[in-house]
Amino acid sequence: MKTIKIFIATLMLTLTLSIMPTHALSKSNALKIARKALPSQGYLIKSEHKKGIWDFTFKNKNRKIEWEVEVSESAKMALKLEMERKQYEGGRRYKISSAKAKSNVLKKFKNITVTKVRKTRDDGLIYRVSFKHKKYTATADVNAQTGKVQGYTKNFFATKTTSAIISKDKAVSIAKKRIPNANLRKVKLEVEKGTLVYEVELIKGRIEYEVTINAKTGKIIEVDID
Fold it and tell me: Torsion over CA of 28, 78, 55 and 73, rounded to 10 degrees?
């Protein structure tokens, strides 16, 4: 009887382990990657896993700033970093110029190129400044009254895994083979649901195509027609 109980217990443990979710990137390793993306020390307050993405939320020491970092399992890298101040708010009026908003962003982020500055509303009046860096593209929200950067979002390029994927030229060749005699408009490397993909935009006559290609295998995932 004792032997049967031990056998049943072992079987149940085996079944439990077999149905437990397994991740290509452990939480501890994903957390290390997330911490490296932070601009300063952050204290973890929440973590979540969904569709190949680890999502971590941190706060700074005085709990006035919150960061959210997305980490891809397959790419094993940070995809996105979002920062927002606890007292996030826009201004009541446009007291500073767009040039001043641009200048404040250039001071806060090093080695960047500002690509666009526009007025908008988000809990008040703000300037939304778009910029790029060799490692990421980003937008920052600047309070139109105080000039303070209230929040920002960085989208990181897949720089660490490019040696393991097909080239952009190869991706374009695959896309053009599917859509013969089409002209290239744009190609970019993205991460969708934790998978590195090339999005190749083509135009043929008046029809636009977006061909999504798995960046590791070269397999076409989908073709959208507009």
Answer: -70
